[in-house]
Design goal:
- Helix 1 crosses helix 8 and helix 6 packs across helix 7.
- Strand 2, helix 2 and strand 3 form a beta-alpha-beta unit.
- The protein has nine helices and twelve strands.
- The protein has a domain of 152 residues: HUPs (Rossmann fold).
- It is 32% helix and 18% strand.
- By secondary structure, the chain is of the alpha/beta class.
- The protein is globular, with a radius of gyration of 20 Å.
- The chain has a three-stranded parallel beta sheet with strand order 1-2-3. It has a three-stranded antiparallel beta sheet with strand order 4-5-8.
Length: 289
């Protein structure tokens, strides 16, 4: 894959657990504009590594919604379901370096230690009996988020994340890091609900000697009940027939200037790209509907 003229490569990486809703459209638009404003690339990845959570037909709905909203990606779509060899290679490296280990602890057992993995469990299991976890070294992970500001996580706070589940499915933390490296991602724009996961991913990047990535975590849209809009909470799908109105609504949430009313979708996105101001994104964690 060729690198963009400016070196910026961003991505949008939805899971096919349902169609896009307003919150996921906000992420798609913000990541698209942030990439295009720097004449960078914007890639599409389908994170289809959790079949039990996938909804039949969701992939086509997601792709059709992106097209309806004028959000055209660069290159081919990357499908996580086709990437098992790369994930296994990364796991082998980590296990051989003793930076990952087999773990049979249940969530209930870990809850007794505040989610922190007990030293007494570092023992040999076969994959059929256990998950594989990343061994977090005893130090802090620090990074500067472009919207949320300086972040610092102590290893004693975050615990050891699962990389491959007991049922044999690959975990998000492993797949996202391996795929970001494969696609040469330089900048990630996503919801603030994934801010805490960034510490795990940065640690895994460092362990695998991968290039660092810049992060921008957006405030998430919450409903009247105060909960984040999500596919799991049955947030309504966006209406592709009102694409222009949807884009304008998202730009308002992102604190961006609004374009003239007479522009079509292509012109609207071009105008929004030219006037993109990432520092105008609200410095908060939640936005009300």
């Amino acid at each position: 894959m060729s690198v963009s003229n400016t070196g910026y490569i961003g991505r949008f990486a939805p899971s096919p657990s349902g169609p896009l809703h307003l919150g996921s459209l906000l992420t798609a638009v913000a990541s698209y504009l942030d990439a295009r404003a720097t004449h960078g690339q914007w890639l599409l990845r389908i994170e289809d590594i959790d079949p039990p959570r996938e909804q039949e037909g969701a992939v086509n709905l997601i792709i059709n919604s992106l097209i309806a909203h004028g959000l055209q990606w660069d290159g081919d779509i990357l499908w996580q379901s086709q990437r098992s060899d790369s994930y296994d290679a990364a796991l082998d490296r980590l296990l051989n370096k003793q930076r990952a280990y087999y773990c049979s602890c249940s969530r209930a057992q870990l809850a007794n230690t505040g989610g922190i993995h007990p030293e007494c469990c570092f023992q040999a299991f076969t994959l059929g009996d256990a998950a594989i976890r990343l061994k977090i070294e005893q130090h802090s992970v620090e990074f500067l988020d472009r919207v949320q500001g300086p972040q610092c996580y102590q290893s004693t706070q975050i615990g050891d994340p699962v990389l491959k589940r007991r049922d044999g499915l690959y975990a998000y933390q492993l797949a996202v890091v391996v795929d970001d490296a494969e696609q040469q991602i330089t900048d990630i724009v996503r919801g603030v609900d994934l801010l805490d996961a960034t510490a795990w991913q940065l640690h895994l990047q460092q362990t695998l000697s991968l290039k660092p990535i810049r992060y921008l975590h957006l405030p998430v849209i919450v409903g009247d009940d105060g909960h984040k809009l999500s596919k799991q909470s049955f947030a309504p799908a966006i209406n592709d027939q009102t694409a222009k109105a949807n884009l304008l609504q998202v730009l308002r949430y992102l604190g961006q200037a609004l374009p003239p009313a007479d522009l079509n979708i292509t012109e609207l996105l071009r105008w929004a790209t030219q006037h993109w101001q990432a520092d105008h994104i609200p410095n908060q964690t939640a936005l009300s509907l």
